[in-house]
Amino acid sequence: MGLMKTTTIDEIKVYANSQIEVCEKVEILDDGVAVSSSFHRHVVAPGDDYSQEDPKVQAICAAIQTSEVVAAYQAAQEANKLQVLTPEV
């Protein structure tokens, strides 16, 4: 059988601002026995393209990241950007 690499979804977290954090576990198997593993995390923000995500992540995004949620998230991002750019007097 030899070496084999597998990638699985280990954890999916949904945050209050509707961002979705995905944790993937990457394992190297030697004849079916795990010899190494690592984790990779990434975030899917409202408005991001999630068409290449795992089907479970796609389903959660479709349910949570509605057009209203995307608009509110983008407005909040713009407001935060303006706060950072505007010096305090």
Brief overview, please?
The chain has 89 residues and is α+β, with helices and mostly antiparallel strands. The chain has helices at residues 55-64, 67-85, and strands spanning 3-14, 20-30, 33-44. It has a 3-stranded antiparallel β-sheet with strand order 1-2-3.
Overview of this protein structure:
The protein is of the alpha+beta class. The chain has one domain (3-85). Helices cover 33% and strands 39% of the residues. A hairpin with a 5-residue loop joins β1 and β2. It is elongated and about 60 Å long. The mean pLDDT is 92.
Q: Number of DSSP helices? A: 2
Name the beta content range.
35-45%
What is the SS-derived class? alpha+beta
Low-confidence segments, ≥5 residues, pLDDT <50? none
Main sheet, how many strands, which sense, barrel?
Answer: 3 strands, antiparallel
Question: How many E-type strands?
Answer: 3
- Topology as H/E string? EEEHH
Radius of gyration: 18 Å
The end-to-end distance, rounded to whole angstroms, is 67 Å
Mean pLDDT: 92
Helix content: 25-40%
Molecular shape: elongated
| Strand order, largest beta sheet | 1-2-3
Number of domains: 1
